[in-house]
Sequence to fold (826 residues):
Amino acid sequence: MRFFSTSFFRGLIAQAAGTVLGMGLVMALRVIFGLPLSSPVEADDAHIREVIVVGGVIVGAITFMIGAGVFTDWFKWARGEETSDDHTPDPSKPNWMRYFSVDFDHKVIGVQYGVTSLLLLLFGGIFAMLFRIELSGSGITFLNSEIFKVLLGYDGPHLYNTLMSLHGIVMIAGILLGVGAMSNYLVPMLIGANDMAFPRLNAFAFWINVPGAAILLSSLFFGGFDTGWVGYPPLSLRAPLGMQMFLIGVYLVGLSSIAGSINVIVTTLTMRAKGMSMFKMPIFCWAALATALLQFTATQLIGLSFQLVMLERLLGMTFFDSLKGGDPVLYQHLFWFYSHPAVYVFILPGLGVISELLPVFSRKPLYGTRWVALSSFGIAVVSFFVWAHHMFVSGMSPFLRIPFMYSTLLVAVPTGVKFFSWAATLWQGKIIFKTPMLFALGAVVIFLLGGVTGPPLATIATDLHLHDTWFVVGHFHDTMFGGFIFPFVAAIFYWFPKMTGRMYNEKQGKIQFWLMFIGFMLMSNLQLVLGLLGMRRRVVDFDAALGFDSMQLALTIGGFMVFFGMLLFAYNIIRSWTKGEVAEGNVWDSRSPEWQKPNPMPLHNYEHPFEVVGEPYDYGLPNSRYVNMNPAGESPAAH
Amino acid sequence: MSAVESYAIKLTRNRMGLWLFIISDAFVFVGLFVARMVLLGDTRPELDQGLGLAVTIMLLVSSFFMNRAEVEMAHGNRPAFLRNTFITMALGVIFLLGVVGVEWQIAHFGPADGQQGAVFYAMTGFHAFHVLTGVIFLFIVWNNGRRGHYSAEKHWAVEACAIYWHFVDVVWMFFYVGLYLLGTPIV
Fold:
């Protein structure tokens, strides 16, 4: 069985062994320092268990990385040994093994990111469907089923809280991985590089997600946690052990963000093809660069805030517990300093994909290319100054509200630039309604909904009413589906031939689009309406007298339509990967350099470097060229 | 592409990557400093001033030797490079012993004793962890240098180690002010 020799499998074994070892280590340390291993008082006993388990889990994450072989080359460097820069795969091993092993090729890492992302999105979706069933009518019924009590040891409202929290954070982890998938797969290809700047760091950035995701999901079996994905203290200080799994898991995924973003920045700044000035760089790379700038700075603050909560739980260091003089609002500031920019991390690459796709499928130049490129940076810069709009009702100093309201409304300006560009690009274009284009158009519509529902939440007076209602939920799902899910699906369809050399099933793709688009519209608009009527978010039940039952049922149906749409998507890509029609040449008649190469992309992208001689998006202009694939006049076989 | 050219290109990328990492890491320390300002305001934990000044001087002086080590390597003077690296490492270890081994033991509060405990142990702990990784990095560089690995032209690892060490030092300059000098002591 070759599977047992893959990095993935070896890593998991090492993680299991490391977790046990780490727990033993903590226990040994406790014995050496004369600390008790158990206590007759139940609360103290739980605390001791928590310390031991957390120690084990952290060691387990490190041993995963060692076992998988991510650190091997770095250990060699530390011993003063040289490593080869040639990453040609071992021909004696089957190709599929590369995807389960530590591989330095950015295309393999991109696919690894993408598949892991889709798996996490699936888990997040299952959690959502479970609590959607519960919410489709008033009264607590489904989540009180015996099966949950048997499986997890808890049920009812606490299970709802756990599922709701996990839905949020697992989706976010999935989205971050999806962002990593797009930047890793596309950036080197679009700028004419053969790999990322730091291939080993790139592998590290992917693989750290695997133990991260495993630990995050394991919180379900450690008593869950009921704080929502924000983990506000003091609730997060009192939540069960699952809270720690959440904190560690997110921390590891955050490490991935930081390492990956440094890679993206250095790659885009130093590895562009000859003639590709910044403004001739594709819009997606601009978006990836702006995203990376947010990721590599802001992510540290969520890491810090989570570590402080961990320390407070483990060692009793009082940062946030107001009973002991701590400041819970401090946590919110640290947390939102990352978590607001984070939502732009989620959407900017998606908006970049929309700007990439619209000109190809409307056969027209992208309107205002430079402005669109800069708008990503505009959004990134503004996003650092808006975080406290999440905290209008938190009890922070009221004078802070006004500047944060203005800065928040300012986000509409660079975002508006993008919308005008998209509308002007589509205007009088010869639009080709292929599946990727449908998803891009759907994304524009949905993101517009997300945009117009933003200002009521940014303005203090209206936010005081809407805070913590389903209106916020609706707004957020609009931005995430318009800014990430739909563009991500569009990107996977669009570059599917590049990845696999085969075509996806167009008919299934279109069915998926209509299923998801209609289902999502139903779902999110009902969320907005229910929120306006006063439905609180993060509650397991609602009063039947409110008359929400029928709307909630329709909402559940919409949610399931989206869910089944994504299942159809999974079926479509899995089947087309091996059985799809062979896709040869420039499938979309694109000007981009990667489509001038055969499908799937050759192992070392561009054997002969190309040269940029024109503007990237001048579709439909006679005699305009973007790239000269053969600048040195080498043999035509190079194509 | 020639080997020299390829090394030069890699060096540019490595430098950029390292500085990005340092900017990123600096955000952690800024966050900790903000937490200190919010939680303690114009008060500070009561600490041994003599010890604080002593370890601070140790770390400052170590940066001087770190710089000497890097310059000597750039001039191809291996024995001087090794000597200076070793002194830097030793000063780093003394700093760690001073903070973790002595200050943590003689402080009249533990990590669980109110905001001053939380802030003091978090700030010194996060920083000490960075000093520890810096010392390990120094040891790796010293050990490889001892075995004849670096040259005047190619010593990126030494350069990286030096930049990282200076960064850790600069962070402490702020933390020293924040913990030992700012505000009035809590009694």
Summary: Chain A touches chain B at residues 77-80, 197-198, 201, 258, 262-263, 265-266, 269-270, 296-301, 303-305, 308, 311-312, 315-319, 324-327, 330, 333-334, 337 (CB under 8 Å). The longest strand of chain A covers residues 611-612. Chain A has a mean pLDDT of 93.
